[in-house]
Design a protein that fits this description.
Elements (H helix, E strand, L loop, with lengths): L1 E9 L2 E7 L4 E5 L6 H11 L15 E9 L4 H9 L8 E9 L4 E5 L2 E2 L2 H8 L3 E4 L3 H6 L1 H10 L3 H32 L1 H18 L5 H30 L7 H16 L6 H27 L4 H21 L6 H16 L1 H47 L6 E6 L18 E6 L7 E2 L6 H15 L7 E5 L7 H15 L3 E5 L3 H6 L2 E9 L4 E7 L2 H13 L6 H20 L5
Parallel strand pairs: 3-13, 3-14, 8-12, 12-13
Antiparallel strand pairs: 1-2, 1-4, 4-5, 5-6, 6-7, 9-10, 10-11, 14-15
Helix pairs in contact: 6-13, 7-12, 8-10, 8-11, 9-10, 13-14, 14-15, 17-18
Length: 574
């Protein structure tokens, strides 16, 4: 239940706090006084569109705060638990702030939440008549959802089964469609896979092979470089194509020095040194020969490595993957090929499963249709009674189940196979027409009031706001509508913006919305009225443009007293 509403800098309102109670409330005031501002504020604080035009001229921001009592509202308790918002278990405070800069703040008990989640919460707090009525009148899906809401637990369980069976079918249908499409190109896919697998298997590329080949190539290049250097050294020491050999030359010099030293002793030392040099060079040449043999490289080895690396790089480019992932690719393609080999059998198996899931859904959907038809019979009778109470006793109301005129089976949906529309014939002899075709504003108002009356019996919402529900109504019908709204208020808190004195007189609480100006600034205020003030306001509503008279005040007093007496007689005094 809405307990208080604080409005700050919205349109013509500076600061207003309105305290509400259990029962029926009436908001009245002259045209243009700002009654709609209060409704706009309620809409805003419950997640409505953040229109910056709502911000009072000259102000940077505006805000609305609403306090609700939620002691018995299990849906709200569940929401608060899901959002991990701490509260006392009996009251919640919602705060909404909008600014010229576009900043939009939503808080529940001080915790910021997205506006979409605020709208989810609002569904269980308050129902505002007027914001979605045009959709309800023209949207058969909303009408179907409303009919489903009138069902008991068994109906809800049936709806859950339909949703589950539909989801099961849709998942199966998508998988089956993919298989069928894949099977259409099965032969060409298998041939393509066979070519790829033959190439991959022939290549037989191993994990880390590329790195190993690069390392091997590096080693062989190093060895080849050493081998070339050693061959050059060996040529210098032992001889080359020109015939020059360091060892031969040193040996000749050593022999000559040795011969001279035998005759001349002063050559003996240098002769021995040259002979030692020869033996040193001879040992070096021996070791160079051994090293050269060790590092000798076959050029074909480098060619083999280069060809292998080239193959790996080509395979990487072709299959858009790394060399190390090629073995895994081979395994995947083998699995895919195996799947294609068994695809026809899998399609056949899936076809059987597809028919089973569709059949299961159709059976459950038919059960739901039968349940809905039973609900519609009860709903039609209740609507006819409500409309009769509202002075539309000759009205015919029907829930029409639309046939499938496509000539094709309907695709399963989570709502089942039914397409319905609420139909009405306000006068005998006239054909049934969709709700949206109702021409009379008074009939439309009473129609929506009848629906809202029935909604109170199964809706978990504790507060209802009616904005101009009495459009097109006057005279005796105004009294009937007032009594009907009073009846709703015994089960739900009702807040009504009205221009009818009969409705204002029937309310338990009366608020006057009025506009004042100091010459430079205009503002709207909201005041809860006492008995005398209330008589004066109802008297103004009765007299209209003629001005308040003693007669209008006297009649207003009678209206209010009569309403109070009727409440006492019916045991519904607040």
């Amino acid at each position: 239940m809405l307990e208080s509403l604080t409005i700050h800098q919205i349109a013509l309102i500076d600061d207003v706090t309105i305290h509400f109670h259990q029962g029926m409330h009436a908001l009245t005031g002259e045209t243009g006084a700002g009654k709609s501002i209060v409704v706009d504020a309620v809409t805003l604080v419950l997640g409505g569109r953040a229109d910056r035009d709502l911000i009072r001229t000259g102000c940077d921001k505006a805000s609305v705060e609403a306090e609700f009592s939620v002691s018995n509202n299990e849906k709200v308790h569940s929401f608060m638990e899901q959002e991990s918002i701490e509260y006392d278990g009996s009251h919640i405070v919602i705060y909404r702030e909008i600014s010229i800069s576009g900043r939009n703040i939503c808080r529940v008990c001080g915790v910021m939440i997205p506006v979409a989640r605020l709208r989810d919460l609002a569904e269980w707090l308050l129902d505002l008549h007027g914001q979605n009525d045009h959709r309800f009148l023209s949207d058969p899906e909303m009408q179907l959802a409303f009919l489903d809401q009138t069902g008991a637990e068994n109906h809800s369980l049936l709806m859950n089964r339909v949703r589950e069976d539909c989801e099961s079918f849709i998942n199966n249908h998508r998988a089956y469609a993919r298989l069928v499409k894949k099977n259409e190109n099965r032969e060409s896919q298998m041939k393509s896979l066979e070519r790829d697998l033959e190439e991959l298997r022939s290549a037989d590329i191993r994990v880390n092979e590329a790195e190993q080949l690069l390392e091997e190539r590096k080693e062989k290049e190093t060895a080849f470089s050493k081998s070339e250097a050693l061959d050059t050294i060996r040529a210098h020491l032992s001889g080359n194509e020109e015939g020059y050999a360091a060892l031969t030359e040193v040996k000749a010099a050593s022999d000559l020095l040795k011969s001279i030293s035998q005759k001349h002793t002063d050559f003996k030392d240098i002769s021995q040194r040259c002979e030692s040099l020869y033996f040193e060079l001879e040992d070096i040449a021996y070791q160079v020969n051994q090293l050269a043999d060790k590092f000798e490289i076959n050029p074909e080895e480098l060619d083999r490595i280069d060809h292998r690396l080239d193959l790996i790089h080509r395979m990487e480019r072709k299959y858009q993957t790394t060399a190390d992932e090629l073995p895994q690719l081979t395994s995947r393609l083998e699995e895919e090929y195996s799947t294609l080999v068994n695809l026809e059998a899998e399609v056949s198996r899936m076809s059987v499963e597809h028919k089973k899931t569709l059949g299961r859904y159709r059976n459950t959907a038919r059960e739901l249709t039968e349940s809905r038809k039973k609900l519609s019979e009860t709903f039609e009778k209740k609507m006819m009674k409500e409309l009769s109470d509202l002075g539309m006793g000759n009205t015919l109301f029907r829930v029409e189940f639309k046939p499938n005129e496509t000539g094709r089976p309907l695709m399963p949906t989570q709502q089942g196979d039914d397409r319905i529309e609420f139909m009405i014939s306000p006068n005998p002899g006239e054909p049934l027409k969709p709700l949206a075709k109702i021409a009379s504003g008074g009939e439309l108002s009473r129609m929506m009031l009848a629906i809202k009356t029935l909604e109170t019996s199964h809706s978990g919402v504790e507060s209802m706001v009616f904005d101009e529900i009495d459009t097109g109504i006057s005279g005796r019908m105004a009294q009937v509508v007032a009594e009907k709204m009073l009846s709703i208020s015994r089960e739900r808190q009702v807040i009504c913006v009205t221009h009818l004195p009969q409705i204002a007189a029937a309310a338990d609480y009366h608020y006057l919305v009025q506009k004042t100006t100091d010459g430079s600034r205009t503002q709207t205020s909201v005041m809860e009225l006492g008995h005398r003030e209330r008589v004066a306001e109802v008297g103004r509503m009765i007299s209209g443009a003629d001005g308040i008279t003693d007669e209008s005040n006297a009649y207003a007093e009678k209206l209010i007293d009569a309403a109070e007496d009727k409440k006492k007689q019916n045991g519904i005094i607040s």
